[in-house]
Amino acid sequence: MESNLKKAYIQLHVAVFIFGFTAILGKLIQADHFTLVWHRMWLAAIGFFLIPKFFKELTSTSFKSLIQLIGIGVLVAIHWITFYGSIKIGKSASLTLGCFGLTSTFTSLLEPLIYRKKLNPFELLLGLFALIGISIIAFNSPDENKGNGNYLLAIFIGVFSAFVAALFSTINSRLTNKIDTKVMTFGELTGGFLFLTILLLLQQQFHFFKILFPFSDFQLIPYTDTNNVFNSIYSDVFWIVLLAFVCTNLAFVLNLNAMKHVSAFTANLAINLEPVYGILLAAFILKEHHYLNFHFYLGTSIILFSVILHSLKKIYVSKYQSNNKRKA
């Protein structure tokens, strides 16, 4: 049993590490963010058919549930478009990952609103901490980044992306006990892909949103002339395939296997480390620490501190309730 738990912890952290790598790939891929997300969604959806017994679980899911998942997939697509759009616009994976740390704050606010629960003062305080952190980042843009990317617009889009991630995660939390999680992810990927395809077909109607939906740059086969790692016209194809099958399918399976042996709170605490892993990877691989200043890391540290405190508080409450049940 102890060996299974140890293996589960390793799988969990490898999965979170891979999730953190998605932002790095978002910057390495030269294709626009719409092309990136469109290809990632259909490739990752197909990838689930390589998982044993998936087709059986899919066919046993009700049509009504699948329609629900396709609807939620629209939110997933918007989250990914804004997440990678923020990276492309700000030309910084670290900046977007710092904004992504606000997801827990938004979740703590959305859950009471959607499910009519009482707002928790402690969580509101943590939300204030996170707001202070993002304000420090926003009002102290590094001089070196000016001219390279639109720093403030990237923050705005990154924060909106975190909000959408919190929204679909909150909705998903009520479905995980009713629908197989692999089927959930497949349905949402399919829904997101269909949504983006419809937008692509109606592209003339969405000129106002062209900064987030750069249809004119869309590539059915994403070729590139230059790449930060190796010089090949197929480099973007390689990175997108890696993003779909490794950073989506493999990471998902590892995370799912780990959650069979660790508590949901332990898993959530580890998943909240995704921005930390991503920022460290961005510093090591993309050398972003050369132009991101002290204020960025101060603000990000405040956000991540609020995330960790939020997770620890949930673990404490869970243990307290569990002990009370035993005494009763």
Description:
- This protein has 328 residues and is mainly alpha-helical.
- It contains 13 helices and no strands.
- α4 (63-90) packs antiparallel against α8.
- The longest helix is centred in the C-terminal third of the chain and has 34 residues, at 294-327.
- The chain is globular and about 60 Å long.
- The mean pLDDT is 81.
Task: Give a quick rundown of the structure.
With 328 residues, the chain is mainly alpha-helical. The protein has 13 helices and no strands. Helix 2 packs across helix 10 and helix 4 (63-90) crosses helix 5 (93-100).
The biggest beta sheet is recorded as: none
Give the helix proportion (percent range): over 70%
Mean pLDDT: 81
Strand content range = under 5%
The SSE string, one letter per element, is HHHHHHHHHHHHH
Instruction: Figure out the total of helices.
Output: 13
Low-confidence stretches: none
Instruction: Please report the distance between the alpha carbons of the first and last residues.
Output: 28 Å
How large is the radius of gyration? Answer: 20 Å
The general outline is globular
Total E-strand runs:
0
**What is the structural class?**
mainly alpha
